[in-house]
Input
Amino acid sequence: MNSLFTPLSWDDTGYILTGVWNTITISVVAIVAGTLLGMIVGFARAESNKTVNFLFGSVLDILRSVPLIIQLILFSTFVGAIGHPMNPFVAGSIVLSLYTMAFMSEVFRGGFESVSKSMQTAARSLGMTYWQTIYHIRFPIGLRAVLPSWMGVALSVIKDSALVSVIGYMELLRTSEQLISRTQQPLEILIGVGLFYFIISYPLSHYGRYLERKMAI
Amino acid sequence: MEYEFHWNIVFQKMPELLSGAFVTLHVSVLAMLLGIVIAILLAIAKMNNSKPFCYVATVWVEIARNTPALFQIYMAYFGLGAFGIHLSPYVAVLSALVFINAGYLTETFRGGFQSIPSTQYSASKSLGMTSIQTYRYIILPQMLRRIYHPMTNQFVWSILMSSLGILVGMSELSGTTQRLQSLSFRTLEFFIVAAVMYFIITKLVLFGASLLSRRLFKGEI
Output
């Protein structure tokens, strides 16, 4: 009699690779979009006055104080309820990007604020316009300073992308979960999945720490 | 928008949601306390010269920091089944959170410890302090000041991450929400309330932490 469960075989490679590919896609989308948005919001926050800053801050605070998984479920249910259901990739990308933005904006704000006022005054007194100051002074210096923390956030986004599985996106962890329920071999599959994340994350996190040390001196 | 909100059912189920929130708080506090204890041991092991301990600590820290929390929870819930260990959802989530908290806090503790210049040890020794006195009055108070903020963040992080219990059927806040919404089909209402509750919990924790820090450090932080 055939068993209900079939063991893991090489035929599953394609399925797993789809999961790997989907994890990479959604992480890249979220990191790129989150970085760009975060840069804009971070700059706006570094530039604006207290009241505007407070309003910005409280909205971003919501994104950071509600679990990502709840945000994902809420968003995908919400767009469904108003009659525009989205596919999991789009919904997941939007939520993950906004979530990334919330963290990135703090990182970039810190970076822009670390460029001292006197340096900006100096640039202005050399005859640079406001935008030239931003382009030649504040962006290059501010962005350089945030590289290690940027990497930290980017890495956590790769790891958090696993949660998008909850709204049905077939990323790595979800494919593995489905394989587990078919094969009943949880350990082998999970170790493989863990290795994948580890191989991506470990070198980058060490590079980030190296940069941090190098810049600290 | 054609969606009609029905809040009544949510308010009727409020006691269940609140008890879910209590479980969330409960599991994160426990995960934090156990995490701190293990992290202290791991940090000592990592700074120790004896190879095997240092090795174990390094592997622990790197795995905890470089894999997703959801992976840890799956590992505890499904993966350990391969060894015949079947954990309940609560224990699975708790042990995953403890594992991660310990990993992150080890680095925090080590960083805090190493940030205190070694000249302070010699200075306090030359003042005639014993080593217990040195730690009690000189090293630990300064260290606590430096690790306090990262520890608060870690605690908030564990509260938020305990929401992954929803995926293994744990009955904390998000798991309870999931169960209640599947009974009533008021998904949006229930999850909005859950989101608000998480927000309030994190804000209360941060507020409490800042009050405590003011008492502990008398404003100088």
